[in-house]
Amino acid sequence: MSRIGKQPVLIPAGVDVTIEGQSIAVKGPKGTLALDVAEPIEVSRNDEGAVVVSRPNDERRNRSLHGLSRTLIANLVTGVTQGYTTKMEIFGVGYRVQAKGSNLEFALGYSHPVLIEAPEGITFAVETPTKFSVSGIDKQKVGQISAVIRRLRRPDPYKGKGIRYEGEQIRRKVGKTGK
Predict the structure, then answer these.
(1) DSSP 154
(2) Model confidence at 1: pLDDT above 70
């Protein structure tokens, strides 16, 4: 049995969970998130009020979905209570970011500034011209928009210039040796 799937998802005070068939909705202080659980997986509440995920049999697909479903539900609970934040930094001469309303405008060495619009539920915060953060309650959305921003100017393996996650180590390469 899935070790992750076996563990119940504890529901903190101030969080309301609604289960209707294969749909689960989690409402907390930061907002509301919903999830449709894959068909063979069953979601219910136990006596303590925690959410329990179970599977009908030990088929390979059901085993895979068991732990996944439990983790996705736990991510919903964490999102509506604490939220998710990805901190990012920019390296490179002349590379910078600035806030334009709720959007971000990047100067990344292109002939034009690059504008990234904030999707619904995502907020940007610029700390310095080279450091900013992406925040929201949906872990998948925060990770997706962070990856899109990083892809604007990937870190260069030779000089290390580009956009990277805070604390990310870039594997550096040695340049050509001169004659």
Answers:
(1) P
(2) no
